[in-house]
Each structure stands twice: as C-alpha cells, then as structure tokens.
Design goal:
Elements: H1 2-18, H2 34-52, H3 56-62, E1 68-71, E2 75-78, H4 79-90
Length: 104
C-alpha cells in the first residue's frame, strides 16, 4: 500500500504541470513590433540586396570582419574565401542563379 501512496503522491504533484493551459503562449512576436521590423529590414538587405540582386557592397557591409562560414559541402571559409565563392557561384551571372524568397 505504501508504494501505491507514493505513486499517487508523485502523480498528484505532476498532474498540474501537464494541464497548464498553453493557449496564450506564442512563439512569434507581433509583426508590427520594432524588433520584427528591424529583423525584416535586415533580412531584406541580406537576401534581396546581397543574395538576389548581388549588391556586393551592401552584402559585405553586413558581414563581420572575422566571418567564419562553414559550407555544408565545401567546409570552412574565411571572409575572403566566402566572398570569392559568393562572386563565383551566387553572382556569376549564371542563368541558374538561385533566388531566396522570404516567407512572412
């Protein structure tokens, strides 16, 4: 009987944690907030100007001087290697240029 009471006591303590309402919890911030607007503006610089339009000056301005990039197939690239690859691959004028689209 003692083990049953111990079992019951344990579950009575845990049960409230399992039924806490989570309907008011949201992972996203309001799209009118200052943080959201700042992130959206910087995303557009990175993806639209830097990646899609190949505006190298704006793109370089967004990257840290000590940039370390790890490509999934090419491995480590420092800032200089990253921009050589960016120029040769993403912005080479190829008709197969990838385009990035932000999804709200």
């Amino acid at each position: 009987m003692s083990s049953f009471l111990s079992f019951l006591k344990y579950h009575v303590l845990i049960l409230p944690l399992l039924v806490i309402p989570v309907s008011g919890i949201h992972a996203q911030i309001d799209d009118h907030s200052e943080l959201f607007q700042t992130l959206a503006a910087n995303d557009s610089l990175l993806f639209i100007e830097g990646f899609n339009k190949c505006n190298k000056e704006k793109f370089e301005g967004l990257m840290a001087a000590d940039l370390e990039f790890y490509h999934d197939t090419g491995g480590f690239q420092d800032r200089e290697e990253f921009f050589v690859a960016y120029s040769n691959n993403i912005c080479s004028g190829s008709e197969k240029k990838p385009i990035r689209k932000l999804i709200p």
